[in-house]
Amino acid sequence: MKPSKPADLRHLTEAELEQQILENEKALLDMRFNLAVGTLEDPAAFKIVRRDIARMKTILHERKTQAAG
Description:
Blueprint (H helix, E strand, L loop, with lengths): L5 H4 L4 H24 L7 H24 L1
């Protein structure tokens, strides 16, 4: 799994970013379940998904502050 680049994420609309966040949070939940069961294949994916979620939330926050300011 490769991390998303911020430049690619900035081209998405707010609705698309929110949808991506939900999908990544679901994937993170599934990975946690697989870790507990013992079937997780790529433990390094946790870090990548968490950072992707953080990138998307940061971009959303930047857009909201620019619109307000």
